[in-house]
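Run log // design_07
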């Protein structure tokens, strides 16, 4: 997830590495001198993401596909706030936290509501196994977000940079979510996420311990990281 740029780098805003971030940069460039702030775009991202999660929780074919499209749109909008911050210098500590919190909330809601949707499709209660599997995936994602935030506070943004290839990052797999809903594979996806997310959380936890041993938490680094966006 493309986070906000440090205000010290306002004069230099290199082109993003990923295709969606490049498109986001072009779309928000006209807003550079406007009254629109990155926080406004983060709010739009959050609202669209929540709407997508709610639609996924309904469980019907139309609702799940609508929800998947909204989640994809929300994932794209997530790049716009960071790009606007980079080219306009509109950065703040609150904005950085708001961005991270929105990312975590939308992603957790995505998995939890997909589990609820599977339960609704089968006529099960909201506390059925599929809901719990979605909750497990969501909790694992919450842990991943927290640990990545801690790694960033100790090692900087380089420490949390995602793997990328051909202009795509790991998180861009969410753009394939409509394929999951169109082929009615939501339930297998939730099951896979309930296994894969905890495994990835364990890997991030190991990486966190490695970074902590190498650098140790630094109050100055922490304050600088929270001041970036």
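design_07 sequence
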């Amino acid at each position: 997830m493309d986070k906000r740029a440090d205000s010290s780098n306002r004069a230099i805003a290199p082109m993003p590495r990923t295709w969606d971030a490049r498109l986001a940069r072009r779309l928000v460039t006209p807003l550079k001198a406007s009254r629109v702030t990155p926080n406004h775009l983060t709010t739009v991202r959050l609202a669209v993401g929540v709407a997508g999660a709610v639609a996924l929780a309904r469980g019907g074919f139309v609702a799940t596909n609508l929800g998947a499209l909204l989640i994809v749109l929300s994932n794209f909008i997530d790049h716009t706030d960071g790009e606007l911050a980079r080219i306009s210098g509109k950065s703040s500590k609150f904005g950085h936290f708001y961005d991270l919190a929105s990312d975590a909330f939308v992603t957790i809601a995505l998995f939890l509501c997909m589990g609820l949707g599977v339960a609704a499709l089968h006529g099960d209660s909201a506390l059925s196994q599929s809901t719990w599997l979605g909750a497990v995936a969501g909790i694992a994602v919450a842990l991943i977000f927290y640990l990545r935030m801690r790694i960033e506070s100790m090692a900087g943004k380089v420490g949390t940079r995602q793997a990328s290839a051909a202009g795509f990052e790991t998180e861009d797999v969410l753009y394939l979510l409509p394929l999951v809903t169109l082929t009615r594979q939501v339930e297998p996806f939730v099951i896979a996420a309930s296994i894969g997310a905890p495994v990835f959380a364990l890997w991030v936890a190991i990486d966190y311990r490695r970074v902590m041993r190498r650098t140790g938490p630094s109050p100055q680094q922490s304050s600088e990281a929270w001041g970036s966006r």
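Confidence is low (pLDDT under 50) at residues 5-12, 219-229.
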